[in-house]
Amino acid sequence: MNISIQHRVTRKFLRGVDSWVDEAGDARTFATSIEAFRLCSDLDLDGVCILIDRGAGRPVIAIPVDVPAGATRPVTGFPSLAFR
After folding, report:
1. pLDDT value, residue 84
2. What is the pLDDT of residues 3-41, one digit of tens each?
3. Are 43 and 35 in contact (CB under 8 A)?
4. Could you count the other beta carbons within 10 Å of the beta carbon of residue 32?
5. Beta bridge partners of 66
6. How far apart are CA 24 and CA 2, in angstroms?
7. What's the rounded Cα separation, in Å, for the pair 31 and 66?
8. pTM for the predicted model, two decimal places
């Protein structure tokens, strides 16, 4: 299983605190989706998805992370299947 963070508009993957890359293989990976969400919260990332790639033949799960108007921290939405 591979867990990463992808920006929904640019389609780039998070590599570091302020570093984004084009390829999923170059992205930072996380042990759990909770760890990925904590980083989104710590960095106030908005408009991203936590991607959970469960391997060949299984669809990638995308969990949207957004900062609602007036909120100070991001929240997650309902997981959906990612279409890359």
Report:
1. 46
2. 999 999 999 999 998 899 999 999 999 999 999 999 998
3. no
4. 12
5. 75
6. 10
7. 21
8. 0.84
